[in-house]
Structure prediction request, 376 residues.
Amino acid sequence: MAEESDSGQEKTEQPTAKKLADAKKKGQVPRSKELNSTTTMVFGAMGLLFMGSYMISHIVTVMQQGFSLTREQIFDSHQIVSRLHFAFNEAFTGIAPFLILMMITALFTPALLGGWAFSGESLAFKGDRINPLKGLKRIFSSNGLMELVKAVAKFLVVSTIAITYLWNQSDELLGLGAQPLESALINGIYLLGMSFLTVSCTLILISAIDVPFQLWSHSQKLKMTLQEVRDEMKDTEGKPEVKSKIRQLQQEMAQRRMMEAVPDADVIITNPTHYAVALKYKHEQMATPIVVALGKDLIAFKIREIAQEHKIEIFEAPPLARALYTHSDLNQEIPGHLFFAVAQVLAFVFQLRNARDQGLEMPDRPDPYIPTNEEI
Prediction:
């Protein structure tokens, strides 16, 4: 059954990546106490098994040195300080590997589920944490029920396995009293490690059940309503009306820049009214002509209007205008299959310009040839 938000809407949607990231910043990540305790106990038991004899040998050395003092050494302050320093170093050397193993286990186990999460918000005081109603709600929630089931299961499983194992090992445990001290200590810590490991391994089953439950519970807590998803998308990507206004402003700015480039064009090729393409060609600087402006309908009208104001030659060639508009990009070179047709127009424009300046005979108007699709 889906949870409900404060607005009354059902939380039916899975949490988004942003929702998960924000939750992690607040310290809200899936955590399994059973996984942490099981891992710590298993590695602790293994540490006792593999490092037990090493630790016992150092402890025995400390005990031998500590209980073998003569009367003169006891009353010698320098000897006492020296023995204490030796005992401290010996004891620390013996237990340091085990402590390091436990520290590494405690630090890296949380990374197995949810990763590390350091958040000051999770440490801040919150009044609802001491609210009795909130506390009762947590107790009687699905998570509280799961905690109760786990506690009962751990008690039954651990106690049963522990009693069974210790009963089977009773002879070995009683036999420790007949062994020399050092051997008894080594064998005792081995039996302790084995019993600890046996009991710890039984908790793996509980952890295997708890981990999926914690993942599911964390996902349920972060579920979102449809409205929350829509609001997040608006905040992330921007509101549609704002994005539309931005696109409109960008288009207006691009058109303004394009119109400012029309006076630098050498010729405007038109449809004559539907399309207009402004071309610029400086043979000293360019290998091929460049499209500095293009548009249709109202934009084409504005291009022609600016061209007339600045006395830019307007050449009517409907097929060529349509081809340039369709296949050309702004501020890019013209397509290769239109080189010849545009060269005819530019040659005519330059000849016309020279004829007007020098009073010569007007050149014949060309009929640009547009290749078909089969010829391209």
Summary: The mean pLDDT is 78. The chain has 13 helices and six strands. Residues 47 and 98 are 6 Å apart (CA to CA).
